[in-house]
Amino acid sequence: MSIDRGKDLVEGSSRSPGDQPATPSRYESQKRRDWNTFGQYLKNQRPPVSLSQCNSSHVLDFLRYLDQFGKTKVHLQGCMFYGQPEPPAPCTCPLRQAWGSLDALIGRLRAAYEENGGTPETNPFASGTIRVYLREVKECQAKARGIPYKKKKKKASQGMAEDDSNSSMRFS
Fold it and tell me: Where are the domains of the chain?
């Protein structure tokens, strides 16, 4: 063993591959970025808002603020392409954040809030106000594109239909 190698072992400078911190998943990285962005948004408010003062109205303001960076065309009711899934020409309707993006963002921020010391009872991302807002955005965007969102049927009714179809198959 060389003197340098022994010195490394004593000083603890040699690391085995298992000592390396794990690379965060794409979801964890995105969650951290979203959390930092929301924190910066609160700091930029006049006056700045601390996380302990944050409520669902701040979250709604943040979601509306993000709309300016959206890439989804949402036709207004007065637009001649309102309700058409694939309009034949461009129009001046605004670009917005897609409902699915907002829904995923809220899910990540909801988890990050609790991971950073917030309690589920005080989580502004989990409030009914946010759920109502997301539902309204979903419905509005669906109407603007002419795509109906249908409620999923309960599994109990589907199970009965499967039982009926299976009972008609008899072997002779």
Answer: 26-145
